Amino acid sequence: MAEIIDGKALAEDVVAKVKTETARLTETGVTPGLAVVIVGEDPASQVYVASKSRRAKECGFHSVQHSLPQETGEEELVALVEELNADPAIHGILVQLPLPKHIDEGRIIQTIDPDKDVDGFHFINVGRLGTGTLGSAFVPCTPAGAMLMLERVRGRDLSGLSAVVIGRSNIVGKPMANLLLAANATVTIAHSRTKDLPALARTADVLVAAVGRPEMIRGDWVKPGATVIDVGINRIPAPEKGEGKTRLVGDVAFAEAKENAGAITPVPGGVGPMTIAMLMANTLTSAFRTAGLEPPAF
Ligand SMILES: NC(=O)C1=CN([C@@H]2O[C@H](COP(=O)(O)OP(=O)(O)OC[C@H]3O[C@@H](n4cnc5c(N)ncnc54)[C@H](OP(=O)(O)O)[C@@H]3O)[C@@H](O)[C@H]2O)C=CC1
Ligand SMILES: Nc1nc(=O)c2c([nH]1)NC[C@@H]1CN(c3ccc(C(=O)N[C@@H](CCC(=O)O)C(=O)O)cc3)C=[N+]21
């Protein structure tokens, strides 16, 4: 039976450190500032954004939220981002994705000042990560959180281990693969065109699932003793809880996989809470850099 890697507890550790360091920085006259921008009324996005703003306040940050209507124009959003870029009280800007279809997401992301891009989605930060220039990069929060969870089980150096990442998105799969590579793992990236995924998954000492398909990864895809990181967040119907009720599951069939895995992250309570904690860590890092101080390591 696998060890369960508790993302909630680990996120509390990260947030506790952010709080302490924020207090130290604030004494020098700089308070970390985070701006979260959301366009439209998607209920799931509203929930995430609310918890980001709540966490930011808890950390002692200056926290602002801009909730814009669904019909907001692209130029209007560009103007808001430019205003936040120029605001010295703001060290981190997060524009919640996805954006409404009439807005060019790429253009908005590239408008964010790379030094305030706490999501790590700007070309400059993607390039820094891709070239191993990690000292100055903002690393995307979800893969960064996943790496901290992995570190608890496998340490920081993954030399000699094989890692399989299922999913190749710009926000999860690709940056995750780059971080694993930077930690010396031997990395394979799988996706919808991969042949015989179960067999490939079974070769992995570290298996990362970032697909968006509920419980797709079965127990017999997991090599005995492997570390399984489940990034997926899928809301599915839960008639057993009552009519119209739902529950969250990952991309991994948890009950089966934990029989084979050495360690596994749960959903909920796994990578999700770590994502929000790493957003706080990245914002703190940005504020330290602005102040000309060496940021703490996480
Ligand atoms: N915990 C957290 O904080 C976060 C969780 N998530 C969750 O992680 C999951 C992935 O998110 P994201 O990366 O944005 O998703 P995307 O939809 O952008 O990417 C999904 C990836 O999975 C691949 N894929 C889809 N179907 C299959 C299949 N049958 N076999 C193999 N590969 C497949 C796709 O392949 P192809 O490229 O070939 O189409 C694609 O590369 C989602 O559940 C999302 O909710 C996302 C962000 C943060
Ligand atoms: N610019 C941008 N940056 C993001 O980082 C970003 C985004 N857009 N868009 C959406 C995705 C998704 N995401 C999650 C964050 C926290 C949880 C989380 O805390 N989940 C809880 C459960 C929450 C619940 O109950 O719904 C858990 O897994 O335990 C989940 C998902 C960040 N994303």
TrEMBL record:
Domain Tetrahydrofolate dehydrogenase/cyclohydrolase catalytic: 5-119
Enzyme Commission (EC) number: 1.5.1.5, 3.5.4.9
GO cellular component, one term: cytosol
Coiled-coil stretches noted in the UniProt entry, renumbered to this chain: none
Pathway: One-carbon metabolism; tetrahydrofolate interconversion
Gene3D superfamilies referenced in this protein's UniProt entry, alphabetically: Leucine Dehydrogenase, chain A, domain 1, NAD(P)-binding Rossmann-like Domain
Binding site for NADP(+): 167-169, 233
Name of the featured protein: Bifunctional protein FolD
